[in-house]
Each structure stands twice: as structure tokens, then as C-alpha cells.
Description:
45% of the residues lie in helices and 15% in strands. It is globular and about 60 Å long. The strands form 2 sheets. The chain has a 6-stranded mixed beta sheet with strand order 1-2-3-4-6-9, with helices on both faces. Helix 1 (27-42) packs parallel to helix 3 (78-87) and helix 5 packs across helix 9. By secondary structure, it is of the alpha/beta class. It contains 10 helices and 9 strands. The relative contact order is 0.13.
Amino acid sequence: MTIRTTTVDGVCTIEIARPEKKNALTVAMYQQMADAIAAAHDEGSVRVILIHGQPEIFTAGNDLEDFMKNPPADEKAPVFQFMAALGYAEKPVVIAVNGAAVGIGTTMLLHADLVYCADNAMFSMPFVNLGLCSEFASSLLVPLAAGYHKAAEKLLLGEPMSAEEALEMKIVNRILPPGEVLDYAKKQAARFTQLPPASVRETKRLMKAGFRTITEKIIQDEAKSFARMLRTDEAKEAFSAFFERRKPDFSRFA
């Protein structure tokens, strides 16, 4: 089992549980998470969704071997189903991050409501490094949260960011010691079970309504560019270098 889902006292917990592969996400795992969020949406007793990884790592991002065998072709792909379920979740979503959050491990945080991380957490969006481009509205949401120039360091150069930078860039709410992150996130999630659920859902809807249209457009634009760039020679060189454990050579590209 690579995704564990439990529901206790109104909290639906989705655990990424593939530590032997650094919690790298496969197509099957995306589908499991999408289904879990959909089930939580339909279950009246669920008031909040909590997502977390392992004590050592949140996620290394996509499992690149699985990704290359099953590249996302359209919005029916499991990764799109997961991100749509997350982005359109009516109930609040809380995420706890320990260790690395690579690629989609960072971009998914932009669509959550509350994010708490360990002081040893490390975030990165290395899409350009792989010959690709930003995904799931990160080209919109990161500059909105952090400002253009700071976002450029992280998206154009693919620079990693520490927990302190993530807090400064408004990607996370709070930094805690590694052993306290999940417990704190659970306590925050539990607070929603004591609040009027319709009021929480409506307030969340209103907060996101102003950004909904532009966010949807950017996601579609990014998806088209991402799919096109995945077929380019630059991406092929980047992925070949990754699998061959060497530094990519982009010198021949204009």
C-alpha cells in the first residue's frame, strides 16, 4: 500500500507511504489520492482533509520511470484528477511536510488551505531543470504569494527553498520541529470539526472565487506547454541525464 487513508472523528487523513522510494508518486498513487479526496467530499461526517508524508520525507515528486511510461496526456490523467480534487475541495485541506517536497510536492501546497512544515523541510520546483515548465498554476500563485523576483529564482533557476524561505514566501503557515509537525497539523485539522461546516465551506469558496477563473486558465495553459515540452529534445536530454546519473548538456540548444 502506497497511499493510506483513514477517517477518524471527522478528519480524513491521506498518508503518502512509499518511503523506500522517497515517497515518489506514481499514476496509481495519484488515482488513490484523487479517489480519497472525492470520497471525503461525499462523506458527510468528514469535516477536513489532512495530507502528510513520512517523518523523513514528504515526497520526491513524480516517480520519473513511471512518469515516462505513463505521461499525462490530458485532464483525465490521474495527476490532473488529483490536483482538480485538491483544488476544488470544498472542505478545508491541511498539509504537514517533513523533509523534501519536490516538484508537485511543492505545487500541491499552493492549493491547500493550511500548510505546516518541519524546520528541516526543503522545497523545490525543478521543472526548468528537466526541460519542462511550471505546472498547476505555480507560475501564477508563486509570484502572487512571494513576488515576481523571488518566484523567478525558484521557477526559472529551479533553486530549492528552505523552510524559512517557504515561510517568507507565504507557501507555509508555520515552521515546527520535525517531531511536532504532524501533531500540530492534526490539532489544527481537529479545530475544523468543532466549527459549523457549511460556514467553513462557504467562506473557503468565497476566498477562492476571485482567483478561480484565472487559476483555471493558467493551469490549462501550463498543461499545454508542459505536454509539448515533454516531447522536446531538451526534455529528452534532461531525463536521459537523470537516468544515466550525469549532468545534462544543454549547450547545443538555441
